[in-house]
Amino acid sequence: MTANPLDIQEILDETIGLLAREPSTLLACALVARSWVDTAQSHLFRAPAKTKPKFPFEESLALLFDQALTNNTRLIHHVRELSFAVGTRSTVIADEILDKLSRHQFARLERLQLVAVILKSWPSEAIQRLVKSPSLRYFTVTDYSEASPPPLARWFKGSLSTIQHLDLRYRLPDSDVPSRAAVDSIPPLFVKSARLEFGNSDFSLVYPFSLSRVQALALTRIPSLPLDIIPMDLIRILDLDYHDTSPVNLSVFPNLTVLRINVLERFPPALLSNLATISPQNNIQTMVISYLPLDTYVPWHHFQSIDSLLSQVPHLGDIVVELEFGVRKHSAPEQEKRWEENSRDSFVNACERNAFRFVVRDSEETAEWWHNLVDKL
Fold first, then answer.
1. Which residue from 242, 258, 341, 345 has the highest number of Cβ atoms inside 10 Å of its Cβ?
2. How far is the C-alpha of 8 from the C-alpha of 122, rounded, in Å?
């Protein structure tokens, strides 16, 4: 009698792993046989908020999640990513529910995302417990409520942080000055990568985290690069929003390998002059130009200018150009095909060198692009 390949656990695990992004199918798999349950659950509970279309957690899902963990403690070991929205709207989870969830021992939690929605105050005690997970590597805080900045120092006081990748996105009033209480009592927490959005250049907002060992830096809505506090010789990945950033001399980053440029509808005048500062000492291998098309008009002549610059300067000729069109959701295939054809017509020289790629990414795919890069640091 011929053996069923799915009787071999390694093959079964690989097969179910192909369904990791299909929660309904994983649920069906968990009901097939006992040998299928643990593998299916490992994907279902890896990032539980993503198993439902509403993301981050809504309150009803959070309650079910807490009940599942209470009834079956083995499920806790599958959890790798958590995302919570806190605040005063009905779509967020109440502080007492977050408090209950935080009391579970998420020993293998790798990513934690906190989103503020019309926030009055942060549930600090619950967050303090969550950030103590011994395997936590990614920490994200998104707060567009224009309130005071999150009390990072309070959350991490007395914590031996394992966080390597920091993502902070605030929208603060210009007059807001962050509290530096307990500055002397917390040693700096060093990270390898940082994605920052403040709306100003006050880098004390990252405290108690330190950028002095950062190797990958992404800045949005920040007027200038913090050259005085970042290690320019360590930076390998640089992601800049060119609508808000002042002119940048890229030659000061000798070990830069990936340069990402985010451009909205209009190309900034300083873009070409900034690219011209790339020197032979730079080690840039990939340049990603991320463009967000706001309407049907696309300024292809600007892309042609970039291609011309890269082809005329000898030390820029080996750079691989990736033109990324950012979209809220993927466009019609016909539209994407026209974009790609026009892109290749604009980057003729790069195409001749076989050094051009065209991609379309939504915001989630862009985040994964960043995570995949910094995971290799």
1. 242
2. 48
Structure tokens at 9: 């656990």
CA 11 vs. chain centroid, Å, equals 31
pLDDT band at 1 (very low <50, low <70, confident <90, very high): very low
- For residue 19, give the 3-state DSSP assignment: coil
Alpha-carbon gap, residue 24 to 21, rounded angstroms: 9
Measured between alpha carbons, how far is 140 from 201 in angstroms, rounded to an integer?
19
Q: Determine contact, residues 57/85, Cβ cutoff 8 Å.
A: yes
**Average pLDDT rounded to a whole number, residues 332-350:** 90
Q: Is the pLDDT of residue 2 over 60?
A: no
Task: Tell me: cis bond preceding 208? Omega within 30 of 0 counts.
Answer: yes
140 residue type, one letter: T
**How remote is the C-alpha of 193 from its chain's centroid?**
10
Q: Yes or no: say if 292 and 272 are a contact pair by the CB < 8 Å rule.
A: no
Q: Rounded to two decimals, what is the model's pTM?
A: 0.84
Q: Count the neighbouring beta carbons within 10 Å of the beta carbon of residue 173.
A: 11
Least confident window among 7-11, 57-61, 174-178: 174-178
Q: 4: how many CB neighbours lie within 10 A of its CB?
A: 9
167: amino acid identity, one letter: D
Helix (H) or strand (E) holding 237: strand 237-241
Burial 134-158 (b: 16+ CB within 10 A, else e): eebbbbbbbbbbebbbbbbbbbbee
CB 151 within 8 A of CB 179: yes
Instruction: Give the mean pLDDT of the chain.
Output: 81
Residue-wise DSSP of 65-130: HHHHHHH-GGGGGG--EEEEEEESSTTSPPHHHHHHHHTS--TT--EEEEEEES-SS--HHHHHHH
Residue that the structure tokens 């309650």 belong to? 63
| Integer Rg of the chain from CA | 23
**Higher confidence at residue 17 or residue 324?**
324
Both structure tokens of 239: 């992601």
Give the residue carrying structure tokens 């807001």. 176
Helix, strand or coil, per DSSP, at residue 202 = coil
In the chain, count of helices (H) and strands (E)? 12, 13
pLDDT of 102-126, one tens digit each?
899 898 999 999 888 766 678 888 8
